[in-house]
Amino acid sequence: MANIVKGTNKFYIGEDEANPLAEITFQPKSDGVITVDHTYVSDELRGQGIAGQLVEVITSYAREQNLKIEPVCSYVQSKMEKTEAYQDLIAK
Predict the structure, then answer these.
(1) I need a surface site. Which of 18, 27, 48, 77 has the fewest CB within 10 A?
(2) In 3D, which of 16, 46, 31, 18 has the Cα closest to residue 75?
(3) Calpha distance 64→38 (Å, rounded)
(4) What is the C-alpha separation between 82 and 86, in angstroms, rounded?
(5) Cβ(46)–Cβ(36) under 8 Å?
């Protein structure tokens, strides 16, 4: 797995949080819910499963923090709906 770092309302890959090579961002929404609103993977990292690793990290974080996820990002929504292990984390 890539070296994914926790930043401010995001997990990212790279040396600079402001200009990451890849990231998944979220916003606290309400009691126990975060909105995952953006996933980005740079051209140099594409095709390596990085976006999937970012979803794995954000879902692990949600479990650890006892949070549900509202997946606004279309990639995250699709990945969570298709992966049975993530479906219990989707905010209803």
Answers:
(1) 18
(2) 46
(3) 21
(4) 8
(5) no
Q: Count the alpha carbons within 13 Å of 44 in the hemisphere toward its beta carbon.
A: 5
The SS3 assignment for 34 reads strand
Instruction: Give pTM, 2 decimals.
Output: 0.95
Distance CA 15, CA 17 (A): 7
Q: Which two tokens stand for residue 73?
A: 């990002």
Dump pLDDT digits (tens) for 1-58: 779 999 999 999 999 999 999 999 999 998 899 999 999 999 999 999 999 999 999 9
Q: Which amino acid is at 5?
A: V
